[in-house]
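Box 3.1 — From sequence to structure: Alpha-ribazole phosphatase
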Amino acid sequence: MKIILVRHGETVANENKIFSGWTDYPLTERGRVQCVSLGRCLEKYENIDRIYASPLLRAKTTASYIAKSLKKGIIIKPELKEINFGLFEKKTSGEIMAEFKEDWEAWNRDYVHFKLPGGENLVELKERVVPFIDGLIERDEDCIVVTHGAVIQTVITYLLDLPLKKIWHFQCKNGSYTEIEYEKDFGFIKKIVPMD
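Predicted structure (token representation):
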């Protein structure tokens, strides 16, 4: 089976280095250009079974460009939302360090297990996303999944059977996609395509 993991186009929050897990920000002009490019680039996957997307506006908008190119519908899945950054939402790292220094330091010491105040940790994100991925595997679906950076990194570590702490070994830029082949309990990255 083939899973194409797509990160949404650039948003105002990305441009301004603002934490925006569950907070919606609009796409920038560059983000819209990335969506158009993704739509064209992913036309070659005309035989995919389904397109899934996070319910957050940036992912749904990106998915709509891809769906239009492939003439397919979009299935919205709440479990594909970005990690909830809790108190860090809508703030830059500088603002977080000034307002929540102890939490910032604790998170940087153990970004896998430290639960962001009012938010989630990576273990909880994985627990939310893995049943969805297992469902795809069980149905043997070729699909496109339009979602967010931490979700993509978590899915990659899961499919490649790597520890969750390895998520930073995979960079997922806005508007990029990663193609993973998964057969007989074995996953490998076939392609990583940035849209810059």
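Summary of the box: The longest helix spans residues 122-139.
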